[in-house]
């Protein structure tokens, strides 16, 4: 979440954030919903609506009833510095997901804070056509490019793309042979893996059968780290640990739900991301099983869908602002032939909503000490930290006898 904005002319600050976001998104991109923007900018949704109106009035964005708000053209707001070394390109993969959109929004905020002029372009894949897109960004004055997200199964294509690119490219993860392009050092990437803490969380709530669901792919670096942590923990604790790696589409997830329905009442699931978690919840609902009564489940990335699923999905939130800041720092460093990387992973947050069972054990949650995760109660869309008993202040003495 962004640093709270002072009340005075708050909508002007939000307008500046929105103009920067528009500059970061390609024409035709859909903006997040007003309420989600309000959460990001820590303000009332009416403030967001007032700020958006300024962009509608000057033709920067267009509202389509029933569809949403879209980028119509680049903002004319003069937010670009005079020096050309502060122009960075942003490559947006057309199949980007909700996680990628959160990262792009964070990059827009970081660009505003660092006075970096951002210029974005769509790419369909990592072909010669996309290399020509980078060449055009170079002609437009960009000195480097950031690629905030790409499908992990295309890691080999991305490697070849980066090596052939006419501009240096900062990446969201280390790729073998391109470690210097990552915003984070290889040794630190995934260093704050929340898997063991999430497993401890489930054990603390009394669960004894832990499971993992994710994509059926062999070249996803993040998936490999997560699965390794999961298997190591469950092996040490001598726990049953079924894993379900599924292909896209409903049939594969429906089969997994059928296999796991016998674990009803004794199943606590960690998901690779919110998408797989919600797909599993949908599959279980088809056979009459629901969270948290029949199973517990935690997603990852705190996407918009997690907040509005039924019931709301408990999810791990990353520090998107931190990642966006370092993606830009990395790109600027690469433009000067320097390596600029984060040496640590920021602490994560578990948003305790309805699906993980924590709401029924609030006193127990106060006793948890998890090194990589802060617990945040989010039962009504108003996240509050879980305060341990030793951290609570002494109650004020009442003046009433």
TrEMBL record:
GO molecular function terms listed in the Swiss-Prot or TrEMBL record: DNA-binding transcription factor activity; transcription cis-regulatory region binding
Domain HTH gntR-type: start-end pairs: 8-74
One Pfam family hit: GntR
Keyword annotations: DNA-binding, Transcription, Transcription regulation
Record bears the keyword Transcription: yes
Protein name, as recorded: DNA-binding transcriptional regulator, LacI/PurR family
Protein's organism: Terrimicrobium sacchariphilum
């Amino acid at each position: 979440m962004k640093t709270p904005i002072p009340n005075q002319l708050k909508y002007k600050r939000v307008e500046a954030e929105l103009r920067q976001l528009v500059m970061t998104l390609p024409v035709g991109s859909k903006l997040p919903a007003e309420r989600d923007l309000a959460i990001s900018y820590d303000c009332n949704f009416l403030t967001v609506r007032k700020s958006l109106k300024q962009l509608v009035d000057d033709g920067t964005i267009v509202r389509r009833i029933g569809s949403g708000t879209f980028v119509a053209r680049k903002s004319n707001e003069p937010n670009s510095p005079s020096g050309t070394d502060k122009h960075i390109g942003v490559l947006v993969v057309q199949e980007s997901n909700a996680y990628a959109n959160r990262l792009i929004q964070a990059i827009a905020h970081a660009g505003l804070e660092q006075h970096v002029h951002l210029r974005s372009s769509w790419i369909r894949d990592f072909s010669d056509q996309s290399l020509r897109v980078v060449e055009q960004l170079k002609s437009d004055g960009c000195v480097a490019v950031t690629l905030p997200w790409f499908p992990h199964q295309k890691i080999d294509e991305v490697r070849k793309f980066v090596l052939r690119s006419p501009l240096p490219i900062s990446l969201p993860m280390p790729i073998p042979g391109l470690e210097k392009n990552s915003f984070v050092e290889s040794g630190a990437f995934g260093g704050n893996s929340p898997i063991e803490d999430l497993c401890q969380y489930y054990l603390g709530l009394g669960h004894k059968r832990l499971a993992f669901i994710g994509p059926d792919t062999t070249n996803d670096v993040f998936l490999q780290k997560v699965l390794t942590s999961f298997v190591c923990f469950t092996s040490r604790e001598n726990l049953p640990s079924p894993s379900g790696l599924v292909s896209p589409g409903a049939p594969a997830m429906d089969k997994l739900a059928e296999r796991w329905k016998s674990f009803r009442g004794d199943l606590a699931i960690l998901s690779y991301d919110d998408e797989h978690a919600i797909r599993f919840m949908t599959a279980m609902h088809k056979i009459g099983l629901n969270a948290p009564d029949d199973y517990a489940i935690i997603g990852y990335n705190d996407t918009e869908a997690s907040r509005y699923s039924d019931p709301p999905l408990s999810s791990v939130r990353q520090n998107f602002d931190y990642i966006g800041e370092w993606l830009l720092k990395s790109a600027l460093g690469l433009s000067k032939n320097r390596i600029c990387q984060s040496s640590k992973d920021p602490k994560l947050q578990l948003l305790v909503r309805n699906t993980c069972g924590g709401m029924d054990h609030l006193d127990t949650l106060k006793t948890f000490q998890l090194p990589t995760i802060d617990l945040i109660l989010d039962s009504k869309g108003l996240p509050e930290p879980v305060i341990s008993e030793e951290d609570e202040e002494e109650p004020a003495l009442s003046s009433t006898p």
